[in-house]
Write a structure and sequence with these properties.
heterodimer, A: 131 residues, two-stranded antiparallel sheet, 2 helices, B: 119 residues, Thiol Ester Dehydrase, Chain A, 5 strands
Chain lengths: 131, 119
């Protein structure tokens, strides 16, 4: 199962709100000028931030309670930046049932405008079911 | 080896629910959490990971260094109000972290650091 592609843009306010919440004081997230001081094109995304793309996505399936997040693996193939257009797709794989629970992997893929894979976020979930 | 302690507050969890759009009631409603077998509201797994990575960013990494890959196993719930003590082991480009609450391991992770120039 796979979603359609959705276009996503992370902006400066998203990054600043995010780093304020998690307490990351790295100056590269504070302004484009500070990011450039360290060799970046502009403000990069903090490494866990791409996962919030889920809030902008609609999946045609629904996860049923209880939803338990067992493992998380993330691979950033390319550094990601604010104000860039990314294409997001979510895919469900490795789905199986044991007793009354469903086990599955749900993977978020983010591609840049050229179609290059930038980010993979693989979530191992246990849930009450999938509809 | 370094050890660092931080707290996950109710406000952290509420704000992460807004920022991430994950408003699963086990994070926000004590009764709903209890119905699912938890003692209290639990932190989002990705909030735990994000807080761990911010500790590494603040304490271990240089500003241009980047965590290109990370993998975490959530062994036990992190409850709202919990103090999480992180133990961090470094070996060249790899970091290993273990988080404990009340003497119990709650999260384990391994991370790869890209120390090269930004691209």
């Amino acid at each position: 199962m796979k979603t359609k592609e959705h276009e996503i843009i992370f902006n400066k306010d998203d990054v600043q709100q995010f780093v304020q919440l998690i307490g990351d004081r790295n100056p590269i997230y504070q302004s484009s000028e500070r990011a450039k001081d360290y060799g970046f094109e502009t403000i990069p995304l903090p490494p866990t931030m791409p996962m919030i793309a889920y809030k902008w996505l609609e999946t045609p399936w629904e996860l049923k309670q209880p939803i338990i997040h067992r493992k998380q693996k993330c691979i950033q193939h390319q550094r990601m930046y604010i104000e860039e257009i990314y294409k997001a797709v979510v895919e469900v794989t490795d789905q199986y049932q044991r007793h009354n629970l469903t086990f599955m992997k749900q993977t978020l893929f983010l591609f840049n405008r050229d179609g290059k894979l930038c980010f993979e976020g693989i979530s191992d979930l246990t849930l009450g079911g999938l509809s | 080896m370094n050890a660092i302690t931080y707290q996950i507050t109710e406000k952290d969890v509420e704000q992460y629910a807004v920022i991430s759009g994950d408003s699963n009631p086990i994070h926000l409603d004590k009764e709903a959490a209890k119905q699912q077998g938890f003692m209290n509201k639990i932190a989002h797994g990705m909030l735990t990971v994000a807080r761990v990575l911010s500790v590494l960013s603040n304490e271990i990494l240089k500003p241009h260094e980047f965590l290109s890959q990370y993998e975490f196993t959530f062994i036990a719930p992190v409850y709202v109000g919990d103090l999480v003590t992180l133990t961090i082991k470094q070996a060249e480009h790899n970091l290993r972290v273990e988080g404990k609450c009340r003497e119990k391991i709650v999260v384990k992770g391994c991370l790869i650091v890209d120390r090269g120039n930004p691209r």
